[in-house]
Amino acid sequence: MPSEYGPREEHNIYGAEIAEELLTKLNYPKDRTEKVKNCVLNHRGSKDRPRNTIEEQCVADADVIAHFDCIPTLFCLAYNELKLSMSEGREFVKKKLERDYSKLSEHTRELLKDRYENIMKVLFIK
User: Fold this and answer.
1) Of residues 17, 9, 65, 66, the one with CA closest to residue 37
2) What are the DSSP calls for 16-45, one per residue?
3) Which end of the chain is more exposed for a tag (fewer CB within 10 A), N or C?
4) SS3 breakdown of the chain: % helix, strand, coil, rounded to 5?
């Protein structure tokens, strides 16, 4: 689903452009603007972009944590936007959460382990 800025699949790209535009208007230092842009560009787990700084990893981990906090939006994506069947949508959300969890930094993965396991037990009971 496209936003007013572009397709969801490229939100990291136009997000970095928006960040640069805003920070430039605020006279934010160029070197720090580049760091912010890299955090936005490299936060997407599905793009397998390298995370070269602790800040980039932190933003990527925060993005995953947001998915765990907004699970209904993942189901909305599956059913309303992607038009998946009930079983396909359920599997889509399950796989998305599994992928997200696997791409967390080791430290954050350990911190969220119990939460992740509880989510998976409650939502995907067989």
Assistant:
1) 17
2) HHHHHHHHHHTT--HHHHHHHHHHHHT--G
3) C
4) 75, 0, 25
pLDDT tens by residue, the chain, 126 residues: 445 666 777 778 888 898 899 999 999 999 999 999 988 888 776 666 777 789 998 988 998 899 999 999 999 999 999 999 999 999 999 999 999 999 899 999 999 999 999 999 999 986
Q: In angstroms, rounded to a whole number, what is the distance separating the alpha carbons of residues 16 and 36?
A: 8
**Cα–Cα distances in angstroms (integers) from residue 110 to residues 2, 42, 68, in the given order:** 34, 21, 15
Q: How many other β-carbons are positioned within 10 Å of the β-carbon of residue 110?
A: 10
Tokens 């981990």: give the residue: 61
Report whether 8 contacts 15 (CB < 8 A).
Answer: no
